[in-house]
Specification:
Largest sheet: 4 strands, mixed
Strand content: 25-35%
Number of strands: 9
Helix content: 10-25%
Distance between the termini: 34 Å
Structural class: alpha/beta
Strand order of the largest sheet: 4-1-2-8
Number of helices: 2
Length: 126
């Protein structure tokens, strides 16, 4: 499975798996805070990339979402949390090296049914 990034009603969704292609860490291991994926194996919807570029950097070494080049020159996409994550760009920050301009959109993918239900549930509570 490839990691997918999409948008629905202004929310960014990330869907992955503990056996996803391009994983650079083992999210099941104790001490892991999230997922770290080689961006070459991430399908990003064009609208989602536009929203990722709106995420602000922070003063911290770790962000809720992160994009950077590693020591091997690979573009890395990472996030805190589990295999399904949803958020508003204004509700999270990237690290002090966050650079979404390193990413490329490559597919116009639809949000998963699970993500649509979750976001619709959030919006009903407002």
């Amino acid at each position: 499975m490839r990691t997918k990034v999409f948008t629905y009603k202004g929310y960014i969704g990330i869907e992955s798996n503990v056996k996803a292609e391009g994983l650079l860490n083992d999210p099941k291991k104790k001490g892991q805070l999230g997922f770290v994926v080689n961006a070459e194996f991430v399908d990003i919807q064009p609208k989602a990339l536009t929203l990722l570029k709106k995420i602000k950097t922070s003063a911290d070494d770790i962000g809720d979402v992160d994009v950077f080049k590693d020591s091997k020159g690979r573009v890395v996409f990472s996030w805190l949390g589990g295999p399904l994550k949803g958020f508003k760009p204004s509700g999270v920050t990237g690290s002090n090296t966050y650079d979404a301009s390193l990413l490329k959109s490559n597919k116009d993918i639809a949000p998963s049914d699970v993500f649509v239900k979750v976001v619709d549930g959030w919006l009903k509570k407002k």
